Amino acid sequence: MKNRFIVNALVLLLAFCTTGSALAQNNFWLHEGPLVLSNITVIDGLGHEPAPMRDVLIRDGRIARVAITGTLPEIPADSRTIDGAGLTVLPGLIDAHVHIANVGFKPDEFERRDIAGMDRALRAHLYAGVTRVLELGGDMDLSITLRNEIDAGQRVGPTIHTVGDTIGNLNSTTSVFELTSPETQLEIQTLLDEREAVGIDIIKLYAGITPWEARHIMTEAKKRGMRGIADFWCTNLSRTVFEVSLIDSYAHGGCREITREEAQWMRVNGKFAMLTLSAFETMGGQRAFADYPQRGFLKDPLIVDVLGKQIVEDYYDAFSMLRETFEEGENSLYNAQHFPNLQQILPDNMHNVKLLHEEGVIVGMGTDAAFPPGTWPGEAMHHELELHVQAGIPPLEAIRMATHNNAWFIGIQDEVGSVEAGKTADLLIVKGNPARNISDSRNIEYVIKGGRLIDRESLKLRN
């Protein structure tokens, strides 16, 4: 929920400088051959009850077999075995709303683009078991470059799916009567051509686009098999805007409680929902003010291990300025966008996510990391799980939202998002059982991406 200028100037350019030694090329893999997860509990990401005493064979980057412990017919001689006693394996988390951003809070960092800082944020996602992200708006060339380098093994991080640049206006039209003009139709086709040429199949529309402009864009996008997601600020979750614009989802929740009838309409019409509760909690200050007195972020390994303590201390030093700039000042970002009571948006959307789930709407999960400031890459996804459970979502369903459902919206559900034979082995292994205590998702023992066991120690910041 931010204008394009803010995304480019304050999110993508929030610079976090790390030393050259911290970013030196490294071997990030503990093991790249076959793996056996022995006597482990499986949460499959599909909502089924956890299956204890299972062996999982991983070979050639994929889950080859899931079997009762001791019944695997053949174990490769060069495999590495992980003793899964007391551990749970679940699909790698997918954050369906991120911005590939540096994280930094000093004033001189706001206008600086720092690839090293972006590297650090990407590693923070992976360190936290977020193996895939949907990047919802930024510099398209940069996003595609980072995506391709990660895919080629030249950079470490989660697999990136991206919408490229957000579409916030049409330059060729000033009124609804011009939407069918040759100039506007050419502009729409060009925008879609540019994205299709680099493998983008989800587009994001932003608040500068009217619902009728969105309708014309989405009409052409759907002919190409593209999905559309939009951030229309406080009209997010509006049935009327859904109907006019033809979008498939909003990028956030809205600014009010929706009705059961609206939720039912979304289910019948196959709409997807993503509420970004952690972003709303940061906007409203609930987490920020609860954390500030005890400086709890400094004690969270999912934050400081990779981003470093200095960046968190910078956040606390800039705390009042950040609240004034983004949330509380008379001319703050959210006041300028005419948001209502920011403290009410979180409880409204906790109500909404429970209602949407009850009515059978496909609900996914995203964080908006690293925005608003204090929404930490990687860690925010675990907090998002916790907030959904606090809202009344059963833990197994929350996990499904963060894995399989997100994979479905991105269009990769046949590849990842569940622990099943044949799927790519993007996996998170934790101590405990998140089905009983969702915060056990934080107790990370191993992360596996593409069948390779990640050396999490190598991802940590070294000064």
Explain the overall architecture.
The protein is α/β, with parallel strands linked by helices and 463 residues long. It has a single domain, classed as Metal-dependent hydrolases (TIM Barrel). The protein is built from 17 helices and 17 strands. The strands form 4 sheets. Strands 1, 2, 3, 4, 5, 6, 15, 16 and 17 form a 9-stranded mixed β-sheet that branches. A 3-stranded parallel β-sheet has the order 7-8-9. Strands 10-11-12 form a 3-stranded parallel β-sheet, covered by helices on one side. α4 packs across α5 (211-223). Mean pLDDT is 90; it is low at 1-25.
Key attributes of the depicted protein:
9-stranded mixed sheet, 463 residues, TIM Barrel, alpha/beta, 17 strands, 3-stranded parallel sheet
Concise summary:
37% of the residues lie in helices and 18% in strands. With 463 residues, the protein is α/β, with parallel strands linked by helices.
For the secondary structure, the number of strands is 17
Mean pLDDT: 90
- Secondary-structure class: alpha/beta
* Number of structurally distinct domains: 1
Ranges where pLDDT stays below 50 over 5 or more residues in a row are 1-25
How large is the count of helical segments? 17
Q: Provide the CATH top-level class.
A: Alpha Beta
Q: Major beta sheet, specifics? A: 9 strands, mixed
| CATH H-tier superfamily | Metal-dependent hydrolases
Question: Over the alpha carbons, how many angstroms does the gyration radius reach?
Answer: 22 Å
| Fraction in beta strands | 15-25%
C-alpha end-to-end distance? 35 Å
At CATH level 3, the topology is: TIM Barrel
Question: What is the CATH architecture term?
Answer: Alpha-Beta Barrel
Helix content: 25-40%
Shape: globular
